[in-house]
Amino acid sequence: MKTTIFIPARMKSSRFPGKPLAPIDGIPMVVYCARNAIKTGFQVYVCTDSKEIEAICKLYDVNSILTPKCETGTDRIAIAAKRVETDYIINLQGDEPLIKTSSITKIISMLPNLKHSQNEIISGVVPIKSEQAFDPNNVKCSLVKNYSKIQYFSRKPLLNSIENKKPSYYKQIGLYGMTTKTLEKFSKLPKGELEKSESVELLRWIENGYTVSSCLIDNYTISVDTPSDLVEVISILEEI
After folding, report:
1. Helix segments in the chain, DSSP class H
2. What is the structure's pLDDT at 85?
3. Residue 10 in 3-state DSSP?
């Protein structure tokens, strides 16, 4: 069964225009993320509506697929995946350079669980501190069934436990896994009210009665949404 990693990227971010090309360790961020993915040994494609990003990928010998403009990264991947023969899809966001190769490999190891299910998506999650739970840029998760199933996503705090020994809050990271058929099904669903209100695309799947399972990732990540996020990421990488 073939697995392919897709990295959606666009230039027109409202808070940080052109962020895929922002330099990290001397290379564009989208290329930095792609190299983390390439280290898994699986095929990797950046999918974008930007000819500038396409040209940068070519310069750094990274595969890319040019798509039309899309509302979400998952919708963009659904278009790109039609040009690639694969059974499983990994969606790796191009603005999370702290997602390690080992984290991508971990979610890939869970993909065989989806072999007989077209109604399930796996999403990476990480525990966060209470102060991070109040940051609207972090998408929090409400977990049930012994922390294995995601019941809801929100940009507001979602408390999971009141026990001191257990993490109280979890956030979603830009790392999803699904079958190609599930991706096709997702792309045909209408955008729901929950997705519109929270600006979280996987709520479309939950709102239609389907399952989002969790994959607990043990490395801390930051989504680069603003220039200050980029400064923090670079600072963390310099310490590693």
Report:
1. 29-38, 51-59, 73-80, 101-109, 130-133, 180-188, 193-198, 203-207, 227-239
2. 96
3. coil
119 is written with which tokens?
A: 């109604």
Q: Could you tell me how far CA 200 lies from the centroid of its own chain?
A: 11
- Cite the DSSP H helix spans in 130-179: 130-133
Residues 6 or more apart in contact with residue 175 via CB below 8 angstroms: 90, 91, 92, 93, 96, 99, 103, 104, 107, 123, 124, 215, 217
Return the H-helix or E-strand segment holding 5: strand 3-9
The predicted model scores a pTM of 0.94
What are the 10-residue block averages of pLDDT along the chain, 240 residues in total? 95 87 95 98 97 97 95 93 96 95 97 88 94 92 92 95 80 96 94 93 95 92 92 90
Can you give the length of the chain in residues? Answer: 240
Model pLDDT, residue 219: 84
Residue whose tokens read 């990264």: 73
Name the one residue in this structure whose structure tokens are 């396409």. Answer: 54
State how far the Cα of 10 lies from the Cα of 70, in Å rounded to an integer: 9
pLDDT of residue 53: 97
Instruction: Decide: 201 and 111 in contact? Cβ < 8 Å.
Output: no
Distance CA 188, CA 210 (A): 14
Give the C-alpha separation, 24 to 215, whole Å. Answer: 27
